[in-house]
Write a structure and sequence with these properties.
Elements: H1 11-17, E1 24-26, H2 32-40, E2 46-47, H3 50-56, H4 67-80, E3 85-88, H5 97-109, E4 114-118, E5 120-121, E6 124-125, H6 128-142, E7 147-151, H7 154-157, H8 166-180, E8 184-187, H9 193-202, E9 207-210, H10 218-224, E10 228-230, H11 234-251, H12 265-271
Parallel strand pairs: 1-10, 2-3, 3-4, 4-7, 7-8, 8-9, 9-10
Antiparallel strand pairs: 5-6
């Protein structure tokens, strides 16, 4: 006699579950090819990077890209991979709550099960109450299923409320964002083990850390209790760094050492023939 294993969880449910451990590692993608490579490497989910996507379109990061290009990438990645997809929505691409809700609905319609939304603004941070209201609007529009990863740029920009340490300001914002409906808190710009440990201890939700050279290793972050580690734009930057080095070598010495270790043509074609 066989028994059913029960209903298969939805992509949104799976994505929430991935934050319960072991640590969710997200090597962020900026196009379909990078998303497929990330999935093929064994990622449990795919996250986009607004910076990498913006650069691929020839514009600077920081909401210069346009929402339609974010939606287009989201649709194409969702269609190309079999794992949950979360989208970098930057600051929301709308100054008002109604516009923010419309943009989120479009992201959901594109198939994303999570979004990053940040509180950084040119010159500083969005006022806490205003950002909390924006997160509440996202939650009201999306319902319970969407994973809202609320990013606070306190450490990234080294700014906060007068008289508050960066740690205290980060926790203050995290608590307000969670009360407003955030699912997790993303704190880029932190590499110190002691600070990361304190953030995990004081924030009662999954904590997301941005990783790259100089960061604790993934196993070390897992030991500290970090729920999610994101590469952000680091892999896109590494790819563009390779372009610069390879081009310099070809135009200078006329040699090809920087091209060693490249993905091969048949593999890439096979990876994208779905």
């Amino acid at each position: 006699m066989t028994t059913s294993a029960g209903p298969t969880p939805s992509a949104a449910e799976r994505f929430h579950q991935l934050h319960q451990g072991p640590i969710l590692v997200l090597p962020n993608a900026w196009d379909v090819a990078s998303a497929r490579l990330v999935e093929e490497a064994g990622a449990s989910a795919v996250a986009t990077t607004s910076a990498g996507l913006s650069w691929s379109w020839g514009v600077a990061d920081g909401e210069h890209l346009g929402l339609e290009r974010i939606l287009d990438l989201t649709r194409r990645v969702v269609d190309a991979v079999d794992v949950p997809v979360t989208t970098d929505l930057e600051a929301g691409y709308a100054p008002d709550l109604d516009g923010l809700a419309r943009n989120l609905r479009a992201v959901l319609d594109a198939g994303a099960v999570g979004v990053n939304v940040e509180d950084g603004l040119p010159g500083g941070l969005r006022p806490l109450a205003e950002q909390a209201a924006r997160i509440a609007a996202l939650r009201q529009e999306a319902g319970a299923g969407l994973f809202v990863n609320a990013r606070t740029d306190t450490y990234w920009r080294a700014v906060g409320a007068a008289g508050q340490s960066l740690l205290d300001e980060t926790v203050r914002r995290a608590e307000a964002y969670l009360e407003a409906g955030a699912s997790g808190i993303f704190v880029p710009g932190v590499k110190d083990r002691g600070v990361i440990e304190a953030l995990v201890a004081r924030i009662p939700a999954p904590v997301n850390i941005l990783v790259g050279p100089g960061s604790p290793t993934i196993p070390e972050l897992a030991d500290l209790g970090v729920a999610r580690a994101s590469a952000g734009s680091a892999i896109a930057l590494a790819a563009y760094g390779l372009v610069r080095r390879a081009a310099t070598e070809l135009l200078g010495a006329g040699t090809y050492t920087e091209l060693e270790g490249a993905a091969d043509y048949p593999t890439m074609n096979a990876l994208l023939s779905r």
